[in-house]
Every structure is written in structure tokens, then in C-alpha cells.
Write a structure and sequence with these properties.
alpha+beta; Beta-Lactamase; Alpha-Beta Plaits; 4 domains; five-stranded antiparallel sheet; 41% helix; binds ligand LFPHGCPZ; c-di-GMP; EAL_sf
């Protein structure tokens, strides 16, 4: 190393060698100390990065450097710790053998703004003035001798209020004990650290992390002094609380998340195991939520989830926990019930609460959910299994239609295997003649006459027995087999109706269910026209049943198909109305002839006030729009009577007839006087008569 290099490295002056564009070539030790940067950091910067704003002053400084003036100008520099300080800068430009034209810069701390004339001490003072931690110097009697601005900012005590006072004054408190005792007992060099509650001048408590160091006595001090540095942890605590919140709560709804409910369920499990009670997990999935998201947008979907969360909270007791599992799935923990059946009451109450119409995007919509229930200890001792069981039961509920709840049963475990068997056999079902169409009558509630029939598919397999469409239609839908099967049902139903017309029942219509996949076919209208032409059935006798979820899927394309069907003369019925976000506004937008009130509402007649209100609203609204209403799943005389009273013209259900094979249907038509007329079928129990008027 050359003598010159030694000289520069050890010079008390801060020296920097820069290119004229401001990039740094080298800096000596004094420059690094002054700017609080390591040499490597220093050499990666440009001059303007340590020059503080405003920008004009930076420009001036760079111009000054290039002007090669030996005179000093005032600049503000940014220290590596983040604070700014005043300094002076002069430069000299020269030709460097390797770097071309460069400038050597001398920096010096601005002594005019310093108080002691000792540059190191002044830089330390600047640093103390700019740090976030409160720093206090206590004398040997633990009285405050000096403090920095952060102390005032944090505690609210300025110099006038704090100097000469004990640290008790607004600083760290140790419960009832005084800090003085602790501090005085410290030996020189000893350090105490800890987290404490402090009190600000305004009385507010805040958490702080405190470091107290006992300094060795200096030459002119007989006893030790103490440095107390503390940091206000409020923001950190708030941050921690936020992190804690995010780990356990769902930000969209404010409900518990899966982690929290699992923790709580484990605690609840231990408690109920002790006192012999039960706990239940309800797994809830909203019906048709995807359609809401797809058609009304995610913001509306989020709004709906928040409404649902509020309603779920209101439907359970304070000690029960409602969690959002993700998407449109919720889990509810009933943490102490005396018997599993109690969970059914809660599930029914939840269904009822959700059904109350709500307004989204200025539209009145009805919401339903499918709920699966599993109970501890009956269904499993283990929480993961309980949750899985509840999930399985929820799927079963969903298959049974919307707005239902189902308890877990061990047979459901065999479900996966059962599904595989169905899947393997379904594609051969048509060829093997295993599919049959049954027909269930629609009945005029006033006269008891049959007005039409609904075609309902049945699958009879030698090994699997009679398989419910609830189980196989979703598989047919998923595999695409529904297109072929659906065509077959349509053809069979039209042919059967033609046959019945020929037998004299020529006022009847036939309703055929269309699944989502069928409805999405772009040539659906043409296909239906072909089947009508082939079977000779006039289009006005055909009704196609679709659910509202199907309607909502692709509003534009749906509208075209509906208009096509309307022009063809085919009637469209909205099935399961009142579930899966049924919206009354759709009734105005789409050419719909019939509306079928879902069985889950009819089930609540005449006892459930909410169901009565909804059914009455749907009937009245539909009628005012000229849409005919059919109530489905009517099982009791009381339901029939109530529906008749509220002007629901048509009904379908076991009260009138089960779905029948074609021959049995003809027998029923021959003996139609066997069908009950709602006005004559029994009476409501005395204590229920008032519901007619409600
Ligand atoms: N895409 C197609 N879907 C079809 C077809 N055939 C049937 N299905 C759909 O399967 C679901 C279940 O049908 P199913 O088991 O036939 O049940 C129907 C009735 O039997 C039942 N019902 C009628 N009245 C009552 C009653 O009083 N009580 C009671 N517990 N159940 C009753 O309801 C079902 C009628 O449903 P809907 O279509 O909503 O009118 C069902 O979703 C069928 O739509 C098909 O060919 N294609």
C-alpha cells in the first residue's frame, strides 16, 4: 500500500473519489464513518443517494462537484441510519490515469449546527434525535438527566416536565414496585431487559420493551449513571394481533377459520367427553353459489357470503362456533348438545334463517344451503373423521335436492365404492333396457283432476337394485351420458303422452326434466323440434323443467334458448323455485310458463311462518306476472288446503300420487275421482286454522 493510500485511509477528513456522473470510486474510513455506511455499501451508491432532498440542492451539489471549486457549500446528507444531518462539501476535478475525469470530494460535519465541537459526539446526538426508541440518561440518583425527542413522543413528557424527575414519571412501571429500587441495585455494566406496561402522560397504557444499562462511573462522576432505552410496542402488538387474527379468522366474513374451529372443537371434545354430552359438526354448503358468482359477479358473491355469515351467527347460540371453511362452505360446531337430534333443530333453524329473502344488487333472492351433520362420539371419536363424515352427509343432502340436511350414516362410507359401481354400469343401462320412465300427476287443487304428468326416470339394475335418479343423474351429467339418456326420456315421454291423448286424455301435458348439460346444448331447440316431429306431439303439450341455477349460468345464451323454446310453443317450468338463489326478477326477464315451488317450503306448511310467507309471496308474484304455479312435494291434506286457500292452482306430491309406471298411471287416470280435492280433504287441526289467514 502506498504512503498516499495510508494517508487517505487515516486522514481525519472524510474523502470520497467520484466520477463526474456521481458514481463513487472510493471512500476513506472517515467518509464511511460520517455517512454511517460500510465501504461496500458506500461504493455501490451515487453521490445523489446520500444527498438529501430537495432535488435542486442535489443538482446544485453535483454542479458544484463538477465545477471543481475548492470552496465549501452546505449540503444535507442522509446517514445510513436514516436521519439527515448538515455537512459541508468541497471538490477538486482532476484527470485520473484509469478513470478519466474524476473529482475528489471532502465532506465535513457542519460544526456550525453542532453543539459541542466534538464531531463524533454531535453525530451521536443527531442519531439519538432521530431514532424511534426513547432514550433517557439517569443520574446516580435515578433522576432523569437527559432525554431524546422519541421519549417525549412516546410518553408525552417534554424536557420541562421530565428533567430531574424520577423515571416513574410516565415511564416504565413495574407493577406496584418502583423502578428506582431495581435500577439502583444494578452494578456497573449490568443490563436489565424486559417487556413492561408503561403509562403515557394522558394515562393511556402501552406495552414497551425496555433496556436499562448501568454505566461505569466516569472520572468526574462518583457513582454510576444509567441509560434507559425503550421502544413502544403498540404497533408491533397490533401487528401481532393482526397476524394472530389472520391465522384464526376469515377476513371476508369475520368468522372463525378452519384452524380455529379445529382448536375449539378439540377443546369442546375434551369437555363433552368428561360430562357425557355430545357435540355436532354441521358442514354447510350454499346451493348454487357458483351461479351467483358467475352471473352477478364476485363482489355480489362476497356480499352474499357476508350476509350468510351474519345469518348463521344469528341462528346459533353464543357458545356455538361458526367458521368459514373456504368458498361457500361453512362449518358450525355445536359444542354441547344433550342428544344428536338437537342438531337437527339447529339445522332446520339455519335453513329457515337462510331462506328469508335478501336483496342483492337490488334483486330479491332466496338462499338455501345443504347441510351434513355428524356427531361426537356416535359418528367418530376423531375430529378429522367427524368433519369428513359431515362433508359426506352434506353431499348426500345436496343430491336430495336443495335446502336439505342429512345426518351422517356409516353406509355413506361405502358411497365411494357405490358410486364407482354406478359409473361402471350406467353407460350400459340404456342398451340393457334398464331405464324406465315413471310419471307423476299434476293435480288441479280445486277440482282434483289430473292436469298433466311429470316424467321421472328410474334405473332398475339386477345387481344394484332400483337406483335413485338423485344418485345417477349427477353421474350421467358428469360423464356426458345425460345427453343420450335425456333424449331417450324426452322421446319416451312424448310417445307416452301421444298414446294417452289417443286414449282420450287429450288435455294432459307432460313435463320433462332437463339438466344443465342438456340445456347448454346449442342445438337444443332443434333437437326438441325433431322429437316433437318424430312423435307427432303438439308442442303446446310439452313442458321442460329447468332449475334456476341452470338459468343463471349463462344469462345471454339462456335467454336465446328460452326464446327459441317459446317460439316453438314449448312451455318452460322453473323447478325447485325458492332454492339456489331464486330471484323473483328472473320471472320478469325470462319467458317462463310454470313455476314449481320447492318441496322444502311446502314441507313447512302450515307450521313454519317463514315458509308460509315465502310460498305466499312466490304464488302472488308469479300470478301477477301470469305465471302458473305448481307446488311440489305435497304430502298432507293440510298442505293441500292451505295451497288452495292461497290460490296455488296446481299441486304434485304423494298426497295425490307417487310416480307411477305407465300402466298404473292409466289406471289412475281412469279412476281420477279417487284423487283428493283439496277443499274436501280433511280439515286443518283446530289450532292450525288461523294459519290460513296469516
Ligand atoms: N335431468 C333429469 N332429472 C331427472 C329425471 N328424472 C328425475 N330427475 C331428477 O331427479 C331428482 C329426483 O327425482 P325422483 O327421485 O324421481 O323424485 C321426484 C319425486 O318422486 C319426488 N316427489 C314428488 N312428490 C313427492 C312428495 O310428495 N314427497 C317426496 N318426498 N318426494 C316427492 O320429487 C322429485 C320430483 O322432483 P322435481 O323434478 O323437482 O319435480 C329430481 O330432481 C328430478 O328432477 C330426468 O329424466 N332427467
Amino acid at each position: 500500500m502506498s504512503e498516499y493510500h495510508h494517508l487517505a485511509e487515516n486522514s481525519p477528513a472524510a474523502l470520497v473519489l467520484v466520477r463526474l456522473n456521481g458514481t463513487i470510486i472510493a471512500a476513506n474510513n472517515a467518509a464511511c464513518r460520517l455517512l454511517g455506511l460500510y465501504r461496500q455499501q458506500m461504493e455501490q451508491l451515487t453521490v445523489d443517494q446520500w444527498l438529501a432532498r430537495p432535488i435542486e440542492r442535489t443538482r446544485d451539489a453535483l454542479a458544484h462537484i463538477r465545477a471543481s471549486s475548492g470552496t465549501y457549500i452546505d449540503v444535507t446528507l442522509r446517514h445510513g441510519e436514516g436521519f439527515e444531518f448538515s455537512a459541508q462539501l468541497s471538490s477538486r476535478v482532476f484527470e485520473h490515469p484509469a478513470h478519466g475525469r474524476v473529482a475528489s470530494i471532502v465532506l465535513r460535519f457542519n460544526a456550525a449546527l453542532a453543539t459541542s465541537g466534538d464531531e463524533d459526539a454531535d453525530v451521536a446526538q443527531v442519531a439519538l434525535d432521530h431514532i424511534d426508541e426513547a432514550a433517557v440518561l439517569l443520574d446516580s440518583n435515578t433522576r432523569i438527566r437527559a432525554l431524546n425527542p422519541a421519549y417525549t413522543r412516546i410518553t408525552g413528557y417534554d424536557e420541562a416536565a421530565a428533567l430531574g424527575q424520577s423515571l416513574e414519571l410516565g415511564a416504565a412501571r413495574r407493577g406496584a414496585d418502583s423502578w428506582d429500587g431495581l435500577i439502583e441495585a444494578m452494578s456497573p455494566g449490568e443490563r436489565w431487559t424486559g417487556e413492561v406496561q408503561n403509562r403515557r402522560r394522558n394515562g393511556e397504557l402501552y406495552p414497551a420493551y425496555v433496556k436499562i444499562t448501568a454505566l461505569a462511573p466516569s472520572e468526574d462522576e462518583a457513582a454510576a449513571q444509567f441509560v434507559v432505552v425503550f421502544r413502544d410496542l403498540s404497533a408491533d402488538k397490533a401487528y401481532e394481533a393482526r397476524i394472530e387474527y389472520l391465522a384464526h379468522y376469515d377476513t371476508l366474513t369475520g368468522l372463525a377459520n378452519r384452524t380455529l374451529i379445529e382448536k375449539r372443537a378439540e377443546l369442546a371434545r375434551i369437555a363433552v367427553a368428561r360430562d357425557g354430552r355430545h357435540l355436532a359438526l354441521l358442514f354447510l354448503d350454499l346451493d348454487g353459489f357458483k351461479a351467483v358468482n358467475d352471473s352477478l359477479g364476485h363482489a355480489t358473491g362476497d356480499e352474499l357470503l357476508r350476509h350468510v355469515a351474519d345469518r348463521l351467527r344469528s341462528a346459533v347460540s353464543k357458545t356455538d362456533i361458526v367458521a368459514r371453511q373456504g368458498g361457500d362452505e361453512f362449518v358450525i360446531l355445536l359444542d354441547s348438545i344433550s342428544k344428536p337430534e338437537d342438531a337437527a333443530y339447529v339445522a332446520a333453524r339455519i335453513q329457515e334463517t337462510l331462506r328469508v329473502p335478501l336483496t342483492l344488487n337490488d334483486q330479491t333472492v332466496f338462499t338455501t344451503a345443504s347441510i351434513g351433520i355428524s356427531c361426537y362420539p356416535d359418528d367418530s371419536q376423531d375430529l378429522t373423521t367427524l368433519l369428513r363424515n359431515a362433508d359426506m352427509a352434506m353431499y348426500r343432502a345436496k343430491r336430495q335436492g336443495h335446502g336439505r340436511y342429512v345426518f351422517y350414516r356409516p353406509e355413506m362410507d361405502a358411497n365411494a365404492h357405490w358410486m364407482l359401481q354406478l359409473r361402471n354400469n350406467l353407460h350400459r343401462a340404456l342398451d340393457r333396457d334398464e331405464l324406465h320412465v315413471y310419471y307423476q300427476p299434476f293435480v288441479d287443487v280445486d277440482s282434483g283432476t289430473v292436469t298433466g304428468i311429470e316424467a321421472l326416470l328410474r334405473w332398475q339394475n339386477d345387481e344394484l337394485g332400483m337406483v335413485s335418479p338423485v344418485d345417477f343423474i349427477p353421474i350421467a351429467e358428469e360423464t356426458g351420458l345425460i345427453i343420450e339418456i335425456g333424449q331417450w326420456v324426452l322421446r319416451a315421454a312424448c310417445r307416452e303422452l301421444q298414446r294417452l291423448h289417443a286414449r282420450g286424455y287429450d288435455h294432459l301435458r307432460v313435463a320433462v326434466n332437463l339438466s344443465a348439460r342438456q340445456f347448454r346444448q346449442t342445438d337444443l331447440v332443434a333437437q326438441i323440434a325433431d322429437v316433437l316431429a318424430e312423435t307427432g306431439l303438439a308442442s303446446r303439450y310439452l313442458e321442460l323443467e329447468i332449475t334456476e341455477t341452470v338459468l343463471m349460468e349463462q344469462a345471454g345464451a339462456t335467454l336465446d334458448t328460452l326464446h327459441g323454446l317459446h317460439e316453438l310453443g314449448v312451455a318452460v317450468a322453473l323447478d325447485d323455485f325458492g332454492t339456489g338463489y331464486s330471484s323473483l326478477s328472473y320471472l320478469r326477464r325470462f319467458p317462463i310458463t310454470y313455476l314449481k315451488v320447492d318441496k322444502s317450503f311446502v314441507d313447512g306448511i302450515p307450521g313454519e311462518k317463514g315458509d308460509l310467507t315465502i310460498t305466499r309471496t312466490i304464488v302472488a308474484m308469479a300470478r301477477s306476472l301470469g305465471i302458473r304455479v305448481t307446488a311440489e312435494g305435497v304430502e298432507t291434506a293440510a298442505q293441500g288446503k292451505w295451497l288452495r286457500h292461497w290460490n296455488c292452482e296446481e299441486a304434485q306430491g304423494y298426497l295425490y300420487s307417487l310416480p307411477l309406471a305407465a300402466d298404473d298411471l292409466e289406471w289412475l287416470l281412469c279412476n281420477h275421482d279417487m284423487l283428493p280435492v283439496s277443499g274436501e280433504i280433511g280439515t286443518l287441526a283446530d289450532n292450525q286454522s288461523s294459519v290460513l289467514e296469516e
